[in-house]
Amino acid sequence: MHGGSPSRIRNVVGGAHVEGDRRFFEDINPATGKTVALVEEATRDDVDRAVNAARAALKGPWGKLTQDERAKALHRIADGVEARFDEFLKAEILDTGKPVSLASHLDIPRGAANFRAFAELPKHHAGEFFPMRTPDGGDALNYSLRSPRGVIAVICPWNLPLLLMTWKVGPALACGNTVVVKPSEETPATATLLAEVMRDAGIPDGVYNVVNGLGPDSAGQFLTEHPGVDGITFTGETRTGEAIMAAAAKGVRPVSFELGGKNAGIVFADCDIEKALDQSVRAVFANAGQVCLQTERLYVERPIFDQFVEGLAARAAKQKPGDPFDKGTTFGPVISDEHRTKILGYYDKAAAQGAKVVSGGGVIEMEGDLADGHWIAPTIWTGLDDDSDIVREEIFGPCVHIAPFDSEDEAIARTNATEYGLASMLWTQDLSRAHRVAAQLEAGITWVNSWFLRDLRTAFGGMKHSGIGREGGIHGLEFYTELRNVCVRI
Ligand code: NAD
Predict the structure, then answer these.
(1) Measured in angstroms, how far is the CA atom of residue 309 from the centroid of ligand 1?
(2) Which end of the chain is more exposed for a tag (fewer CB within 10 A), N or C?
């Protein structure tokens, strides 16, 4: 395993590491349970200085760059992430425990791609233009201008740390804002590494600041309450979103929220079942189920129900837990002992409620260095009613409940019977049905005969309790810029 003595992670304010004694917390490797780094917890004063540094940078050289120059700067950041690919990869794996096969294909490449995708975007977005007649018979022209929103607070979760953070920092910087990032306390390493990339790419001091800490009574709360923050973009749990929204109410600051989900998949009997199974096993177990787009509910048309459950169980049995740095490992631990305890609570509850445990249902005993990691078995249940909390609440673990259905309308109604609305997937070879059903699903994203195919130009976000606003493509401009109308009397 990749061990060594714990490193120290410091906050980055105005381009420099914050010096001085700070309380610190431990950054734990979920695969081993060992400490990889000691993280300095930002004080209220540190957060204040970070926000002030970001404000000052808006008025400095960064604020004077042309759109072209900013685009070039973003490409340099992407180049820097790619040049230090192996360092980012190692840091992300040590923080999350995710297998190298996943992080090397998803997390780190997307960390760079997010800067490239947004670099050119504001350049190609046309504004509005409305000629009008005035009441006295004259003419006037309206046109729109966009300007940066200002200082953006970026609050991130732990499941895809670099990917989700750059998904916000990329468009924020492309639009000319400056940022103060608060990474998850579980996964602080790559945000700090990115500060070095920013410096080497010539990004002016104060454009990108990092404050580490927890949520309540710590860096998260200090940052979201700070009156110098002009907008808050947050990805995480719905109830955290509620707390952040309350903080944002003071000073009526706008929020962009990507929140929790309880995503469902519908599998019709006419689907290509092998393809449906191959993608469903990803949709359920990738990243040990800790993907916001993950499927925790599957509705399978009755004629293929038994075959599908059996096929998914066979694929679950083939998951290979192991050293995340081993290329053959396909299944990692969950993020923390606390999260494992929470998921195990649901596993116990499912059994108590009479679920049939088709596979898994408990912890995985690992050996050697991995013995103290947060391992938990890929789990499949059947037999619960839709009103069970297993079927209603987000678990965010490697588990799924599968239920049979008999009609299209029933499948749609049961899929939509949730307070969440992030993602859904459906499997059918009937094209008309695919379009008809997709149009009725209450989810921000629907995949037909696929899962997690992402085009970064498309709208990304959730309905209902799964979020506010959309990220991706031009949609991010709504949050990261202020739209102004100029009316000229001719
Ligand atoms: P979380 O809400 O516990 O924490 C997210 C971040 O918010 C962390 O940095 C945390 O320190 C901070 N935070 C916590 N309380 C705060 C407060 N009061 N004020 C300010 N900041 C605070 O979420 P998590 O456990 O890190 O991530 C898992 C959750 O994220 C799941 O619910 C998952 O569905 C969701 N998620 C959603 C998406 C999406 O795109 N919709 C993507 C990934 C994860």
Answers:
(1) 32
(2) C
Residue 296 included in any domain: yes
pLDDT for 20 equals 85
Check which CATH number belongs to the domain holding 254 and give it: 3.40.605.10
Q: Active-site residue 274, yes or no? A: no
| Exposure class string for 331-355: b at 16+ Cβ within 10 A, else e | bbbbbbeebbeebbebbebbeeeeb
Active site residue: 40, 185, 186, 258, which one? 258
Model pLDDT for residues 100-149, shown as the tens digit of each residue = 999 999 999 999 999 999 999 888 888 999 999 999 999 999 999 999 99
**Structural domain boundaries enclosing 425:** 263-455
Among protein residues, the one with the nearest Cα to ligand 1's atom 18 is 216
* Residue minimizing CA distance to atom 35 of ligand 1: 236
Please give all residues whose beta carbon lies within 6 A of any atom in ligand 1, as ranges: 155-159, 164, 182, 184-185, 214-216, 220-221, 224, 235-237, 240, 243-244, 258-261, 292, 394, 396, 422, 462, 466-467
Q: How many domains does the chain have?
A: 2
Domain membership flag for residue 411: yes
Buried b (16+ CB within 10 A) or exposed e, 377-412: bbbbbbebeeebebbebbbbbbbbbbbbbeebeebb
Instruction: Say yes or no: 389 and 479 in one domain.
Output: no
Dihedral sign for Cα 25, 28, 33, 34, please: negative
pLDDT at 2: 55
Question: What's the pLDDT tens digit per position in 195-242?
Answer: 999 999 999 999 999 999 999 999 999 999 999 999 999 999 999 999
CATH of the domain at 411: 3.40.309.10
User: Considering the domain boundaries, does residue 460 fall inside one?
Assistant: no
